[in-house]
Every structure is written in structure tokens, then in C-alpha cells.
Amino acid sequence: xxxxxxxxxxxxxxxxxxxxxxxxxxxxxxxxxxxxxxxxxxxxxxxxxxxxxxxxxxxxxxxxxxxxxxxxxxxxxxxxxxxxxxxxxxxxxxxxxxxxxxxxxxxxxxxxxxxxxxxxxxxxxxxxxxxxxxxxxxxxxxxxxxxxxxxxxxxxxxxxxxxxxxxxxxxxxxxxxxxxxxxxxxxxxxxxxxxxx
Length: 197
Ligand SMILES: Cc1cc2nc3c(=O)[nH]c(=O)nc-3n(C[C@H](O)[C@H](O)[C@H](O)COP(=O)(O)O)c2cc1C
Prior knowledge:
Blueprint: H1 2-45, E1 59-62, H2 65-68, E2 74-81, E3 84-95, E4 100-108, E5 113-120, H3 137-140, H4 168-186, H5 188-193
Antiparallel strand pairs: 1-2, 2-3, 3-4, 4-5
The structure holds flavin mononucleotide.
Flavin mononucleotide (FMN) binds at residues 97-98, 123-124, 127-128, 166-169.
Family: Belongs to the RnfG family.
Pfam families: FMN_bind
Domain FMN-binding: 96-184
């Protein structure tokens, strides 16, 4: 019996140590995976030659429901080139046909859109999700659009194609990108001066 207790006394700390190591390793793997995902997302809305800092480590957040479509603080990543502001990457939410559409928008300091990516949506497959099934062609149409673009779908005399039988979704996305771009351009110096969050 005594030897059983002794064995337990040795085994329990060893198990606890193993568990701690396994938890740490899992945590590290999850963090690495999240970082890899964030880098891929960043690369999809901002070309690598647009910044030479680490925008993932140069972030702030702003609560601007009118600009970003959410009452939650919107993350703002800041890109700098040679120490000067070059672009921001912001979260925005469009109200689609089937609910919120979560976007990430890259906006260059000169006011041009660098890229748009949709990270979450519930639009109807085969109807409102055309942006997700065309290899990125529709979203690519936002690139380099600035103040002089006609920020509406073609049906509303704008520059952006609507989808066959589905105008609500592209209207919502165009409006969300327009508002995010306008806010980021009008407030660019404040965004770059804001404290890290
Ligand atoms: C079941 C069902 C699902 C629909 N899903 C979408 C959708 O995801 N996105 C969208 O823009 N329209 C969707 N529509 C069509 C819209 O109701 C609307 O007719 C269409 O967007 C055209 O809008 P417009 O009249 O402003 O041009 C759906 C319609 C039905 C019946």
C-alpha cells in the first residue's frame, strides 16, 4: 500500500508536468496558426510592397458605427513605408440579404482601395455569394478605386456589377467599402496617431 502511495506521489507531478507541456504546446500551435491566418488575410488586402513594418503589431481600434457598420470597436492595422504612413487595413460589416457580411478593407494613404476580402457571410449560395465563387474577380474591381469612382452598382449608375438576380448583396458590400474608405481617408492622420490598442 505504502509503495502504491509513493508511486502515485511520483506519478502525479510527472502527469501534471506533461499536461502543462502539452497545454503550452497546443497554445503555441494555435497562436502560430492564428498568426499565419492573419498574415494571409493581410496579404490579400495589402500588397507586400505597400509596407515595411509589421502591421499586425501596429494596431489600434475605433468605434465608428456609421463608418464600419458595427457598434464594436473595428480593428485598424497600420502599414508604414520608410516610417511614413502608407495604408490601413480595417474591419467593416455590411448588412447583406441574409445578415452581416464581415469584410476586411485595405485603404492606401492616398485614398485608393488596396484590396477587399470577405471573411464571413450568410448570403444565399448560387445567388448572393457570387463574390465568393468567381475566383475573386468581383472583389478585385475595388482595387485602386478612390474618391472619383461611382460608388454604386451599375443598376444604380455606379461602377460595380450587380449579381444576376441578387442586387442587395453587392449594394451592401459597395456601400460598406465606400464608407470605410471615406472614413479612413478623411481621418488618416488621426488613425496613424492613435494609441496602440
Ligand atoms: C430565397 C431567396 C434568397 C435570396 N438571396 C439573396 C441574396 O443572398 N442576395 C441578394 O442580393 N438577393 C437575394 N435574393 C433576391 C432578393 O430578394 C432581391 O430580389 C434581389 O436582390 C434583387 O434586388 P433588386 O430588386 O434591388 O434589384 C434572394 C431571394 C430569395 C427568394
